[in-house]
Amino acid sequence: MFLTKKEEQMCDGEFGETIRKSMDILVALGDIYGASKLVDITSAQVSGVSYKTIGQAGLEYLEDLASEKFEYSGINASLNPPGTDLDNWESLGFPRDFSIKQNQIVDAYAKLGISKTCTCTPYLVGNVPRFRDHVSWSESSAVAYVNSVIGARTNREGGPAALAAAIVGKTPLYGFHLDNNRKANLIVNVSTELSGADWGALGYIVGKTVGGGVPYFKVKNTPNNNDLKTLGAALASSGSVALYHMENVTPEWDITDKKEVEDIMFVSDKDIQATREKLTTTNREADLICLGCPHASLEEIKQVANIVRGKKIKNKLWICTSVSVKATADRMGYTEIIEASGGNVVCDTCMVVAPIEDMGFEVIGVNSAKAANYVPSMCGLDVVYDDVEKLIHFE
Q1: What does the angle CA 55 – CA 112 – CA 31 come to, to the nearest 5 degrees?
Q2: Are 153 and 177 in contact (CB under 8 A)?
Q3: Is 346 helix (H, G, I), strand (E, B) or coil?
């Protein structure tokens, strides 16, 4: 892989050990995947934040990396959700020792130059690259969104690679950074109109089939951005999809010559309904309804506020989002409405990376196919998968 003189100096440790370690990771990745060179990036999104997933060893690694002074690249970089609401963990019932360690992890990232904006939807809170920008993002649903809906370019990076890219402002030029690798290899014809949790079910079906490929969707009705967010999250969790196209919707939908695509699949209403049923693992009522996987937008919080206005919720309700979106929801009065009904708008974390299995819950209600896919395996809990309106029960 070709390196400039400055990049060679960075590899040789002339800019400090933190830069050298970061370059070691990026050059190794470039060699493995046959990259021709490194390319400058404009944005990064770093996973590997929850204490539940990286543990004490991860915390010590980050603190060691942050112990040396170095010159940060200056690019816009944000964090994935941690395992607690960083500010309100005590009132929400998160374990004390876990929450203290979690805050130490986020503080270590901040010392490395990464923003303490913790969300899997950074494109909703200011980390928004431009069309065709090269970026280094790692959270699976965010990767699918930034590649597909925004049209920036990233591979599905691991947390250490995205952190290394943020520190030095570069990433290896391979994979989805290259034009030819962004073309579709599967056409998906959907014969029914979709709404709500149907989009997640569609993503779950197609992800299972396409794996790490690039699907091209032909749908009956036009989705909004929340639907596209839901679709991409499901594609990335049941498969490893980092990029999808949708006819007349996403910015690069026309780069594929459909005549050259040999693989075609058809998805019917029966397929959608069967998948919705499959993603539910129990016939018990959920004791915690957890929405916001990926993190809820302001529009999604407004929808819930309108559903619960003036009523009392029977089961517990968390709506997971970023601190920035919650601040707007506070100002709009949505948070007050939700809290009056017995629910909570929870910042920073989500049901997948939080230690909900240690908080007395047994059945989680979700409208996210990603959450329905991950909660049983990562948390050992049952899930009920459905539309928001059907999940929330009232006294």
Answers
A1: 80
A2: yes
A3: strand
CA–CA gap between residue 30 and residue 2 (Å, rounded) = 10
Convert the pLDDT of each residue in 88-138 to its tens digit: 999 999 999 999 999 999 999 999 999 999 999 999 999 999 999 999 999
Q: Coil, strand, or helix at residue 383? A: strand
For residue 245, count CB atoms less than 10 angstroms from its CB and return exposed for 0-12, middle for 13-18, buried for 19 or more. Answer: buried
The amino acid at residue 329 is A
> Do the domains at 5-179 and 280-391 have one common CATH topology?
yes
Assess contact for 339 and 265: CB atoms under 8 A.
Answer: no
Class of domain 280-391: alpha beta
**Beta-carbon count within 10 A of 28 CB:** 14
| CATH value of 5-179 in 3.90.180.10, 3.50.30.20, 3.30.499.10, 3.40.50.150 | 3.30.499.10
What are the structural domain ranges in the chain?
A: 5-179, 183-277, 280-391
* pLDDT on residue 79: 98
- CA of 299: how far to CAs of 37, 162, 225, in Å? 41, 29, 10
Residues in the chain: 395
* Six-digit token string for 271: 């397929």
Dig out the tokens for 362 from the structure: 């047994």
Is the Cα torsion angle 350, 352, 356, 358 positive or negative in sign?
negative
